Amino acid sequence: MRSLLILLFCCIPCLGFPLQASAQMRHVGRTWLFGVGKSALYDSYLSPLDYRGPSLSISMTNERTARWGKGRVDSYARWAIVGTMAENAVGNADFYDGTVDFSLGWHYRWSFPRHWTLRAGALAELSFGGTYSSRNGNNPAQGRAALDVAASVMADYDFRLLSRLFSLRLQADAPVVGMMFSPQYGQSYYEIFSLHHYDRNLRPTYPGNVPSLRFAALLAFPIRQARLVAGYQADIRQSDVNQLRRHAWQHAFIVGFRRQLHF
């Protein structure tokens, strides 16, 4: 717990500054995305079997040019909710899974000839959720909570087609270092929260034990005052902590809209 609090308090002062600075900006780009896809779930705490099923997601991103950084730095904020209902191959048990993510950080921007723009930066990401198994009796659910610092890169390409301006974006985010809550192998939540039998339930994470990646390819095109957005997103989450393994692989078609707001 002490390590998680130290990491959280180190992130909060850094995250608060760009929000205060960017609140004075006049132009804010917001993107709403809705996703439909399929997920593959595995959680060794709940079951030795793989579960597969449909998933739904909704997310919103807020991007603006920071006042600091001489116009070369963009602040970035995102939240997302993902829900999945999956069943095992036999069809006699279901997983109900939900995840909520919050991301906040900055990107440094480089502009190149031929309409290319590259961005690279870091994000602080807070994620929590849980999985419920319809088959288990003693331990029917598994909770999750994690705080990460992630590397983030984006590439934008603007081009004209039929006299309209299109924009293609590729984005990838991957956690680099952080903290994760996890029970030990064979440890129940009753032992942790009722009996207070803690056993290294907050563990440091890095790409070696949490090899995860979120990748998106989005195409935006103008419709009146807004820009419609459509594309593909892969959200690959994996962990091997406290002798417990989990993966949640989601592939989704996403569609939404992007707008520029003026203050």
Write out the strand line-up for the largest beta sheet, numbering strands in chain order.
1-2-3-4-5-6-7-9-10-11
- Terminal-residue CA separation: 41 Å
Counting DSSP E segments of at least 2 residues, the number of strands comes to 11
The total of helices stands at 2
CATH architecture annotation: Beta Barrel
CATH topology: Lipocalin
Low-confidence stretches: 1-26
Strand content: over 45%
Return the average pLDDT rounded to an integer: 87
In CATH, what is the class?
Mainly Beta
Biggest beta sheet attributes: 10 strands, antiparallel, barrel
Q: State the domain count.
A: 1
Principal-axes geometry comes out as: globular
Helix content: under 10%
Which structural class should the secondary elements be placed in? mainly beta
CATH superfamily: OPCA outer membrane adhesin/invasin
Describe this structure in words.
It is a single chain. By secondary structure, this protein is mainly beta. It has a single domain, classed as Lipocalin, CATH 2.40.128.100. Helices cover 10% and strands 66% of the residues. It contains two helices and eleven strands. A ten-stranded antiparallel barrel has the order 1-2-3-4-5-6-7-9-10-11. A hairpin with a 7-residue loop joins strand 1 and strand 2. The longest helix has 21 residues. The chain is globular, with a radius of gyration of 20 Å. The N terminus is likely disordered.
